[in-house]
Specification:
The complex is a heterodimer of chains A (430) and B (318). Chain A is mostly helical and 430 residues long. Chain A has 18 helices and 4 strands. In chain B, strand 1 and strand 2 form a beta hairpin. The chains are: A mainly alpha (430), B mainly alpha (318).
């Protein structure tokens, strides 16, 4: 779990303050964010994009711990949740107690609240990394999630607390009643926090965090206290998680116990790992893919969590650097000018692979329908075909398809391996 | 006084049940250095397998075959999943077991749905063993106590008195030396993982009828199991026993005594404000011990980790 590859390239040369080739991805991202709502203007698309942006900030802040600092946390939702709860209270104070606070600045306060809690908890939890840190984070997370049900005054008990974002003083003539305005607000905060987190990873303290992650003992011999370094990463991460919480409060206007519990903390681990922990862009890709999977898959199937869980487990087992790692693997053949060698074998593999995956999906869907559909409801629709899930024929078709395409995938695998070795071979062809 | 006895017995049942899970988990941890997040999922699998078997043949066949099935599943997971992830380090292993826990819950829901299963205790144990001052103590709980005790004895005997136990203990500390002596250490690891998960499965078979067989049963117990082995000291069998009993008693005692915090606050000189709805501290006055009970283990764990990271009986930090 290292990022040594990409990080060493940046540090050794002294950077000028502004470098167009480094700024390019950011400028493109900003342009993309500006154009997005024009391309997808519907309300549901905006909701998905807002959710995506918040998840990206949250996942990036989580990666400050896991990817850059080597700290596996099972309780990161606490900082986002607490920041969010605090922001809802601030929104209510704006509404009822005439507190003057323009809405666009609300996330800062969420961040500060996340930071305060990160300082409190980090002061004793960052003493050790690895399993002990993971266990403390789990304990603290469960503790706060369980307390949130008891402390009704702050957390609102089971039903949570809600607010109204439109009651604040108007800023630049905006009252943030429409989803679009909220989208732009979220996008601005997304760019600010992503840039800040990226710059943090370039600072000396960000670099030392990598060193402590890779070899804490050596870092100590260089004169850095590993505890101190971890503590600073932890606090910064808590701050940005709090910002994500503030944006969550603005976007959804309600926070409940669900924002604090282990399920949320676990899903952000899943998102970050799926995207790839070793890369700055990893959590961004993870958040986009996961949100799309969540919203699109859940429209079509009830058992989408089963698919996501399977995908996650396969990622951990076979691609420990996540989706981004999968893309990054192709940089080397690309630089060698041999990427074209891979196209053909990928193309040949793609048909049986897709058929195999789809038939496995169908098998699961038919099984699920046969077991759980209401009595008497034996018809089901799958891929625009209507059939009876209790008859034997669909099963036979799907199993035959799965076995056939699986056999083809298996027989094509050595071919791909060969093409891969060839494409990664430095020098003239073997 | 009678209530104390009842609570001690109830806490003993909960504690010993916890111990069945913790003993396997702590053995696996001290062997492979990996905390198995999915351990309580194997407990759930045990309950579901036993339910499925009991629909065909009745409770007793489930008691025997379900743990064996769970153990086989566990051994396969070790062989084809965990061993593969092992090369990447401990953190990916932890993430793997975490993902496995999520997946097992989804798979269980896939096959059995999200409702509670009608998995009940056998008729032969469905009577009152004895009663203390009007509180009936069911025979099934007596059975649970004896099962857990028997498992502890057998485990202790195998680990300390047999040749297999010697090899296991040696592989804990010096895996390479044991390997050089000609023992198949990966096989030992697989066996320990299988037996550990089978123990969890057995706990599920026994607890299913009492605590309910539903997809959330792993999550309910999951974090408590961690708390227990961390408090007891990772890798210590005796620590797991003591911590399990401690937590069992904390939970039963806090649930059965009605202590209201406003009484305590008033006894040390505070007065309850008349208008309580607007006060930010209002929850302090309405709090009861039974509300705090579920939190206490976590609080204990955070304190232990912060001040004595090796746990009560542990010899080393993880």
């Amino acid at each position: 779990m290292t990022v040594a590859k990409e990080s060493s390239a940046v540090t050794n040369t002294r950077m000028p303050w502004f470098n167009i080739s480094q700024a390019m991805p950011w400028i493109m991202a900003i342009g993309f964010l500006l154009v997005l709502p024009v391309m997808f203007a519907s309300g549901s698309a905006l909701t998905i994009m807002n959710q995506m942006a918040i998840t990206i900030i949250f996942a990036l802040s989580y990666n400050m711990l896991l990817g850059q600092g080597g700290m596996l946390s099972f309780g990161h939702a606490v900082y986002m949740g607490l920041g969010g709860f605090f922001c809802v209270h601030l929104m209510n104070m704006v509404e009822y107690d005439n507190l003057w606070l323009p809405l666009p600045f609300l996330p800062v306060f969420g961040g500060l609240f996340g930071l305060i809690f990160a300082i409190l908890i980090g002061s004793f939890s960052t003493g050790r990394a690895g399993t002990v840190f993971a266990m403390i984070s789990l304990g603290v997370g469960e503790l706060i999630a369980a307390s949130s049900i008891i402390v009704v005054a702050f957390f609102g008990g089971e039903e949570g607390i809600s607010g109204d974002r439109t009651m604040g003083p108007s800023t630049f003539g905006l009252d943030f009643a429409s989803q679009l305005e909220v989208y732009y607000l979220t996008a601005v905060w997304l760019v600010i926090s992503a840039l800040a987190m990226f710059l943090f990873s370039l600072t000396p303290i960000g670099r030392i965090a990598n060193a402590v992650r890779d070899n804490a003992e050596r870092a100590e011999f260089l004169g850095y206290s590993q505890r101190h370094v971890r503590f600073i990463s932890f606090c910064a991460s808590g701050f940005f998680a709090g910002i994500a919480g503030g944006l969550f409060a603005i976007n959804f206007e309600i926070l409940t116990e669900e924002n604090l519990n282990l399920a949320t903390s676990g899903s952000i681990l899943l998102i970050t790992f799926l995207g790839g922990v070793g890369f700055f862009i990893g959590p961004i890709i993870g958040a986009i893919v996961f949100t799309l999977l969540q919203t699109v898959l859940s429209l079509y199937t009830e058992i989408w969590q089963l698919y996501v869980g399977t995908l996650f487990l396969l990622t951990v087992m076979f691609f420990p650097y996540g989706l981004t790692g999968l893309i990054a693997m192709h940089i080397r053949p690309y630089k060698l000018g041999k990427i074209s060698m891979l196209y053909q074998s990928y193309l040949r593999m793609s048909v049986p692979a897709i058929v195999c995956i789809l038939s496995l999906f169908s098998l699961l869907e038919i099984t699920f329908h046969a077991r759980h559909a209401a009595i008497g409801e034996e018809q089901m629709r799958l891929f625009w075909i209507s059939f009876n899930s209790h008859s034997i024929l669909p099963w036979l078709v799907v199993i035959a398809l799965a076995l056939g395409s699986g056999w083809m995938v298996k027989s094509l695998a050595p071919d791909i391996k060969e093409a891969w070795d060839e494409a990664n071979y430095v020098g003239p062809g073997k | 006084m009678e209530l104390v006895v009842v609570n001690i017995l109830d806490g003993l049942v909960t504690g010993l049940l916890l111990f069945m899970l913790c003993s396997g988990l702590t053995l696996i941890f001290s062997m492979m250095g990996v905390l198995n997040f999915a351990h309580s999922s194997f407990y759930m699998l045990g309950a579901y397998f036993a339910y499925q078997i009991s629909t065909y043949t009745g409770f007793w066949a489930g008691l025997i075959f379900a743990p064996i099935l769970v153990g086989i599943v566990g051994a396969l997971v070790e062989r084809y999943g965990l061993r593969r992830v092992h090369q990447y380090g401990h953190v990916p292993e932890l993430i793997f077991t975490f993902g496995l826990a999520l997946l097992i819950e989804e798979i269980v829901q896939f096959f059995f749905g999200s409702n509670q299963m009608a998995y009940d205790e056998p008729h032969s144990l469905d009577f009152t063993a004895f009663s203390i001052a009007g509180n009936a103590f069911p025979a099934y709980k007596v059975f649970m106590i004896f099962m857990a005790m028997a498992i502890f004895m057998v485990l202790l005997y195998i680990l300390t008195r047999t040749r297999i136990g010697l090899i296991i203990q040696a592989s804990l500390s010096y895996p390479n030396t044991v390997q050089n002596l000609g023992h198949n250490v990966p096989l030992v690891f697989m066996g320990v993982f299988g037996v550990g998960t089978a123990l969890a499965g057995l706990a599920g078979v026994i607890a299913g009828p009492v605590l309910g067989t539903f997809p959330g049963m792993a999550t309910v117990l999951g974090s408590i199991v961690f708390v227990t082995i961390v408090i007891g000291g990772l890798g210590s069998l005796w620590g797991a026993l003591v911590a399990s009993l401690l937590i069992g008693w904390i939970q039963t005692f806090s649930a059965s005594y009605h202590v209201v915090f406003s009484d305590m606050l008033e006894s040390i000189g505070f007065t309850k404000p008349v208008i309580i709805e607007d006060s930010m501290l209002r929850d302090l006055w309405t709090l009861t011990l039974s509300q705090i009970g579920p939190i206490l283990p976590f609080l204990l764990m955070v304190l232990v980790l912060a001040f004595r990271p090796q746990g009560l009986f542990g010899k080393r930090e993880s």
